[in-house]
Amino acid sequence: NAGVMQNPRHLVRRRGQEARLRCSPMKGHSHVYWYRQLPEEGLKFMVYLQKENIIDESGMPKERFSAEFPKEGPSILRIQQVVRGDSAAYFCASRPRTGGNTIYFGEGSWLTVV
Amino acid sequence: GENVEQHPSTLSVQEGDSAVIKCTYSDSASNYFPWYKQELGKRPQLIIDIRSNVGEKKDQRIAVTLNKTAKHFSLHITETQPEDSAVYFCAASNNAGNMLTFGGGTRLMVKP
């Protein structure tokens, strides 16, 4: 059973470009979370999604950031018009629909904005 | 919403000594408390968790205690080894939201 798969692992974007980060949850997991980790800092919740549904987006910046988890395919975190302050590691995590609160993290996507 | 505080932010111990990391939480509805270990450049990995219906849980050299009344929980690592060096994060959640709120992390350094 493959773990949570994220790609790309590393992404470099110039200021003003768009970044798209993809996350495929573990097999059988229908709940996906995105967390952001700034250098030398903790994990900050961004958004919680189920298939075709955003459950909680209270941690998402109001502008430029969006997330989706379509019926088919991976969850995508999209950052438009990136700025230097968006440089961070973005971790996706997943858990099954039933069976408790344990979430499992992917390896992360490191975004660098130059 | 939930707020999780974690102390200390850095902890340096000699190999073989014990290490204790403490967290407090604010939401009395929280009932699930996992601990994650994150090595440099890697993903956070679950090392142990505890639910609010128990006060203590142990797994080899790692133990976690929970005091629901005081709303705090702690990670205890005994007989530390250099490979225990990492950043440790506590977290809390409740069934309703299922979203984990993390503490700020503790950088543990085990000196050989």
Proportion of strand residues of chain B: over 45%
Strand content of chain A: over 45%
Order of helices and strands of chain A: EEEEEEEEEEE
Overall outline of chain B: globular
User: What's the story with the biggest beta sheet of chain A?
Assistant: 7 strands, mixed
Helix content of chain A: under 10%
Task: Indicate the mean pLDDT of chain B.
Answer: 93
Distance, first to last CA of chain B: 41 Å
* Uncertain segments of chain A: none
N-to-C SSE series of chain B?
EEEEEEEEEEE
Describe the structure.
- The complex is a heterodimer of chains A (114) and B (112).
- Chain A is mainly beta and 114 residues long.
- Chain A contains no helices and eleven strands.
- Chain B has no helices and eleven strands.
- Chain B has strands spanning 4-7, 10-14, 19-25, 32-38, 45-51, 56-59, 62-67, 72-77, 86-92, 101-102, 106-111.
- In chain B, strands 2, 4, 5, 9, 10 and 11 form a six-stranded mixed sheet that branches. A five-stranded antiparallel sheet of chain B has the order 1-3-8-7-6, with no helix packed on it.
- Chain B starts with a strand and ends with a strand.
- The model of chain B has no long low-confidence stretch (mean pLDDT 93).
Give a quick precis of the structure:
The complex is a heterodimer of chains A (114) and B (112). Chain A is mainly beta and 114 residues long.
Map the helices and strands.
The complex is a heterodimer of chains A (114) and B (112).
Chain A: E1 5-7, E2 10-13, E3 19-24, E4 29-37, E5 43-50, E6 53-56, E7 65-68, E8 75-79, E9 88-96, E10 104-105, E11 109-113
Parallel strand pairs in A: 2-11
Antiparallel strand pairs in A: 1-3, 3-8, 4-5, 4-9, 5-6, 7-8, 9-10, 9-11
Chain B: E1 4-7, E2 10-14, E3 19-25, E4 32-38, E5 45-51, E6 56-59, E7 62-67, E8 72-77, E9 86-92, E10 101-102, E11 106-111
Parallel strand pairs in B: 2-11
Antiparallel strand pairs in B: 1-3, 3-8, 4-5, 4-9, 6-7, 7-8, 9-10, 9-11
